[in-house]
Amino acid sequence: MLPRVAVIGGGLTGSLCALSLVSRGLQPVVFDAGRGLGGRSTAAHFLTTADPHLSAVLSTLAQNKLVAPWAGRFGIVGSRGGFLAAQHVASGLGGRSLSSDPEDVSSTLPQAPIDEGDFCGFLAASSPSNKAASPLHCAVGGGRSLAEGICELGGIDVRSSSKVTSLQLDPASSRWTVRASSGSPAPEALEFDAVVIASHDPSFAASAIADLPAEHPSLADDVVRSTLADLAKALRDLREEATSPVFTLKAVYPPNSLAAVPFDAACLPTNPSIQFLAREASKPGGGASSPDGDAWTAVSTSGFASALLANSPSSPTDAAAALLAPSLQSAFAAFYPVPGIAPAPLSVSAKRWGAGFTTKPLVPGGAEKFVGLQPFNLAIAGDFVAGGTCPGEAGAISGLLAGERVATWLSAN
Ligand SMILES: Cc1cc2nc3c(=O)[nH]c(=O)nc-3n(C[C@H](O)[C@H](O)[C@H](O)COP(=O)(O)OP(=O)(O)OC[C@H]3O[C@@H](n4cnc5c(N)ncnc54)[C@H](O)[C@@H]3O)c2cc1C
Fold first, then answer.
1. Where does the secretion signal sit in this chain (predicted)?
2. 142 CB within 6 A, ligand 1
3. I want to staple 10 with a disulfide (CB 3.0 to 4.6 A). Which of 37, 213, 273, 401 is the partner?
C-alpha cells in the first residue's frame, strides 16, 4: 500500500504540497475546514515568483488553464491622488519601502510591515525593469478553483468541510490518527504515515507539537524536548503578535462609469486605509466580476483593520464597508475634472480576514521554507514560515518543499 499523508489545510500551500506528494508516489488526503478549498487565496489577486521550481509549476498550471498571466495598466496612486505607471516607478524600488520615502507625506503614517507600499510584490513584478520575477499570474476561476483544480490534477482525495480536531501519534507504530469533524456526530478517524500541517493558524501547529506523546523515543532527549517547546512557543507568539488582519471591500459601479480611471490595479502607498485596488474585469477569466457592473476590489491596510477592530464594532464588516467606501470614492474622485463627481457604487460589501498576513516570519531571512520534524514524520508549511515579499509565493514554495521532504522521509523507511 502507498504511504498515506494527511495534509491539513487546502489553501495554496496544502494543495501544492499534496500535488508534490502525489508526484512522488504518495497518497495524500487534504482536509479543509471550509466548504471549498482555497483559504485566503480566494482573496488573493495574483501570484508572482522568481523561483524556478515554482515557475515550472505555474507553467503546468497555466497549461491546465488554472492560472494565466495578468496584463494591465499597473502602478501606484500617489499622495496627491495622481497615477504613476509601474514603468515609471523608481527602478530602485527593490527592498525600499515606499512609505519611508522622505518625499512622500505617508512616511509619517504608522504602518505595519505588510503595508510598506508594494502590496505582495506587485510593483516589483509588474515593473519592466525587474527581469527576475515572473509576470503576475491570476487564478483564472479564483483561488478556490485553483486549489480544487490542483487537487483534481493530482487525483487527490479531498475532504472539504472537515475540520481536523485532533492529531495523535502512536509512538509504537509511528502512525498518526487524524480526527476530523465533518458535521456528523462522531469525528471521522483515519490513519496516516505522516502529517503536513498547512493551516493558516500557526497555533494549530503549536498544539500538535505540545500533544506529541511523551513516551516517543525522541522525546527522551532533553535537548529535543526543549527545542520543541521553544518551537511551539514561537508558533503561538507568531499567531498572537505577528498576524495582521485586513478587510477587503468589493464595490460594483455602473458599467463603464469609471472609464476615466487610468489603471487596472494600483498600490496606494500613501493611503491610510486602502493599500491595493484592482478592477476585477481586467483579470484573466474576469476575476470576481459582477454581472451588474464594473467590480473593483480594495484591500485595506492592516493599520486600518486593527484600529477598527480595536473599537469592537457590533458588525465589523458593515463598519469596514462604511469607512472604506468613501476612501475608495476619494481615490477615484482624483481622476474626475470636477471634484466630487466620481460615480457612486451600486453596491459595496466588506469581508474580514482575521489572519490576513504575517508581519514577521517564523524563520526570518528565509533560511528554512518549512519546518520538518522527521522523528515524528510531521511537517509544518505555510507563508508564515519564511515570509517574503509575495506571501502566496512563500506558501506555495513552503508546501512544495514540505511535500518533497516528507516523500524523502517515507521512501527511506
Ligand atoms: C485579502 C488578502 C489578499 C491577498 N492577496 C495576495 C496577493 O495578491 N498575492 C499574494 O501572493 N498573496 C496574497 N495574499 C496572501 C495569500 O492569500 C496567502 O499567502 C496564501 O493564500 C496562503 O495560503 P495557505 O494555504 O498557506 O493558507 P490559507 O489560504 O489560509 O489556507 C489554510 C487553510 O487551512 C484550513 N484549515 C485551518 N485549520 C484547519 C483545520 N483544523 N482543519 C482543516 N482545515 C483547516 C483553512 O480552512 C484554510 O483553507 C492575500 C491575503 C489576503 C488576506
1. 1-18
2. no
3. 37
Residues paired with residue 177 on neighbouring β-strands, in sequence order: 168, 191
- For CA atoms 91, 116, 284, 67, the dihedral sign is positive
Q: How far is CA 45 from CA 15, 42, 184, 212, in A?
A: 18, 8, 35, 38
Q: Cell numbers of 355, please?
A: 489572519
The 10s digit of each residue's pLDDT in 331-370 is 999 898 776 678 899 999 999 999 999 999 999 888 899 9
d(CA 167, CA 374) in angstroms, rounded, equals: 16
Neighbours of 191 (CB within 10 A): 13
Q: Is 245 in the pocket of ligand 1 (CB under 6 A)?
A: no
Q: What are the residue boundaries of the structural domains of the chain, listed by start?
A: 4-67+141-241+360-412, 72-134+244-358
Q: Is residue 299 in contact with ligand 1, taking CB distance under 6 Å?
A: yes
For the chain, helix (H) and strand (E) counts, in that order, are 10, 18
CATH class of the structural domain 4-67+141-241+360-412: alpha beta
Query: C-alpha cell of 277?
Result: 485596488
User: What pTM was estimated for this model as a whole?
Assistant: 0.93
Mean pLDDT, the chain, integer: 90
Per-residue confidence at 412, pLDDT binned at 50, 70, 90?
confident
Q: Which fold has domain 72-134+244-358?
A: Polyamine Oxidase; Chain A, domain 2 (3.90.660)
Ligand 1 pocket, 265 CB below 6 A?
A: no
**pLDDT, tens digit, for every residue of 198-208?**
999 999 999 99
